[in-house]
Design brief:
alpha/beta, two-stranded antiparallel sheet, 15 helices, 6 strands, disordered C terminus, binds zinc ion, RNase_H-like_dom_plant
Length: about 375
């Protein structure tokens, strides 16, 4: 693929659609020639009955909406593909069971982005390049691991095994070394490890000394470590779980007693796009219900992705047109619900769809 030719430079999607054929039809392939490698993707797009405005989409996310998290993950994948580094960001930073502020702190330590003497000196702050406790070079590894004060804190910490902090040459190795330790039972912690809090308070203690000339002893540091870790874990246990919230949401979905229940399903061969067929089947079901003057409808489907997309207002390249049709058609009902049902509860529609696979797509309608 290269830059567009002069003739194709101003093409829009509508130039690939047939002006004569009904919707859902793409123009035949003479025009496709310069983008032939995308032919399959283009042909899998199901067009809407009504014209849709152009949109910019962020392809790495299923919702097609940009998030900082997805941008960051993508940049990590690209960065990791050019380095042979075995350090797991996931295991050593983002998946550590600890508070969000400490995860952010762990990330900053690896990126050399916390305020320690050596880094402050680089930025022009005077007289801070050396450790006030021992006179050593005050970099991140020193404050968190190799300073004699830090080593005494680690040695007294109620963890096992005690990390080996000799000859560390990178913060990544420091994090990997301390992550092997677990807290001893008398501390009273559950699954949350103690070591992230030790790192955090070693840094706090150093800042206190550097900027306020106040000194915490090793025991004071460890007292704050255990108190804060326990407070955080206790607060976490008091939060309602997502499962409970989900159950509450499900209970909120009340079905009107006079609503018509329909079950739709599609069967497909491996060569076709499953979710697209499910969506076309659902649209046919809704159209059939409208033709039968149904005013309240409950659509049940075993295609979880499709129901999720409709209920969340999400987008998917090949389905955007038909999802728009379904949303527009939905406005014509007094009430309409889209529910996911497991395949076992959708057996009748499933059997009908399979029986009709060779001839056409199918929807089954069952109402009161
Ligand atoms: Zn020191």
């Amino acid at each position: 693929m290269g830059p567009p030719t002069q003739a194709t430079t101003l093409w829009k999607v509508k130039d690939l659609m047939s002006p004569i054929l009904p919707n859902g039809m793409w123009r035949l392939f003479d025009k496709f020639y310069p983008i032939l490698q995308h032919e399959d993707e283009i042909l899998s797009l199901i067009l809407s009955d009504s014209p849709l405005p152009d949109k910019l989409w962020w392809l790495p996310k299923r919702s097609r909406k940009y998030t900082t998290k997805s941008g960051y993950s993508l940049s990590k994948i690209l960065a990791d593909s050019v380095s042979s580094d075995s350090f797991s960001w996931r295991k050593n930073v983002w998946k550590v069971v600890t508070s969000p502020k400490i995860k952010m702190f762990l990330w900053k330590t690896v990126c050399n982005a916390i305020s320690v003497g050596k880094l402050l000196a680089i930025r022009g702050v005077e007289d801070v390049g050396f450790c006030k406790r021992c006179g050593g070079d005050e970099d991140v590894i020193h404050v968190l691991g190799s300073c004699p004060f830090a080593q005494r804190v680690w040695a007294l910490a109620p963890i096992t095994p005690l990390p080996n902090l000799g000859n560390l040459d990178s913060v990544k190795k420091l994090l990997e070394a301390v992550a092997k330790s677990i807290s001893l039972p008398p501390v009273g912690l559950g699954t949350a490890p103690l070591y992230p809090w030790i790192l955090w308070y070693l840094w706090k203690a150093q800042n206190l000394l550097l900027f306020e000339n106040r000194v915490w002893s090793e025991k004071e540091v460890l007292l704050k470590v255990t108190q804060e870790a326990k407070n955080w874990e206790h607060a976490l246990q008091l939060q309602p779980t997502k499962k409970k919230e989900l159950k509450r949401q499900e209970a909120d979905l009340e079905i009107h007693p006079k609503a018509c229940l329909c079950f739709s399903d599609a069967a497909w061969k491996e060569t076709t796009k499953g979710c697209g067929l499910e969506a076309m089947t659902l649209k046919a079901t809704i159209n059939a219900s409208l033709a039968m003057s149904v005013v309240r409808l409950v659509c049940n489907s075993d295609c979880q992705d499709l129901i999720g997309l409709i209920n969340s207002g999400g987008q998917a390249n090949e389905l955007d047109g038909i999802l728009n049709d379904i949303r527009l058609l939905s406005l014509r009902f007094l009430s309409i619900l889209f529910c996911f049902v497991p395949r076992t509860k959708n057996a009748e529609a499933d059997a009908l769809a399979k029986a009709s696979l060779l001839s056409c797509n199918v929807s089954s309608l069952a109402g009161d």
